[in-house]
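Researcher: Next sequence.
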Amino acid sequence: MHKKLNLQSKECKFCKRSFAWRKKWKRAWDEVQFCSDKCKSESKKTIKA
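Model: Next structure:
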């Protein structure tokens, strides 16, 4: 029995890739918008440019 088959997923707002729920996002899953710190920082760069 694998528990990881039914994880929630979202689409990254920067790279448009889907990413799955992680334990470290347990409390803030609703606020998570990016799949990685790199996408988060790149999105801030493109907004300012």
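Model: Residues 37-48 form the longest helix (12 residues). The first strand starts at residue 9 and ends at 11.
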